[in-house]
Amino acid sequence: MKIKEIIDFFFKSTVRIKILVYLFLSNKKEYILSVSKRIDATYAFTQNEVDALEKIGLLKTKRSGRKKYIELTEKGKKMAKLLYKVCKILKNIEAEKEGGV
């Protein structure tokens, strides 16, 4: 992937970022339905984004009966950690703006 494609892949869909950061913070396997509820996205849209993240190797999925759960791969953990740090920096910038600094 070229840099532009990588940027487009992540930043055109906030749901992808939310999925990765949520899984990073939960630090465990999660069912897609529970992730979709936590990040306030539909199950179908979350499933599509999970498929895209799995395709590039950031997530892996497993079935347990009728349910499908997801977890970060090692590469996904590294990416999610970086995205989490970026989110924290942006949150601090916003707080500074609101505080008049």
Q: How would you characterize this protein structure?
A:
The protein has five helices and three strands; from the N terminus they run ααβααββα. The chain is an alpha+beta fold. The protein has a three-stranded antiparallel sheet. The relative contact order is 0.15. The mean pLDDT is 90.
Global geometry: globular
Counting H and I runs of at least 4 residues, what is the number of helices? 5
What proportion strand? 5-15%
What is the string of SSEs from the N terminus onward? Answer: HHEHHEEH
Low-confidence stretches: none
Domain unit count: 1
Given the helix and strand composition, which structural class is it? alpha+beta
For the record, what CATH class applies? Mainly Alpha
How many whole angstroms does the radius of gyration measure? 15 Å
CATH superfamily: Winged helix-like DNA-binding domain superfamily/Winged helix DNA-binding domain
CATH architecture label name: Orthogonal Bundle
How would you sum up the major sheet? 3 strands, antiparallel
Ends apart, CA distance between termini: 38 Å
Q: Could you give the order of strands across the largest sheet?
A: 1-3-2
Query: How would you state the average pLDDT, rounded?
Result: 90
Could you estimate the helical fraction of the residues in percent? 55-70%
CATH fold node name: Arc Repressor Mutant, subunit A
Number of strands: 3
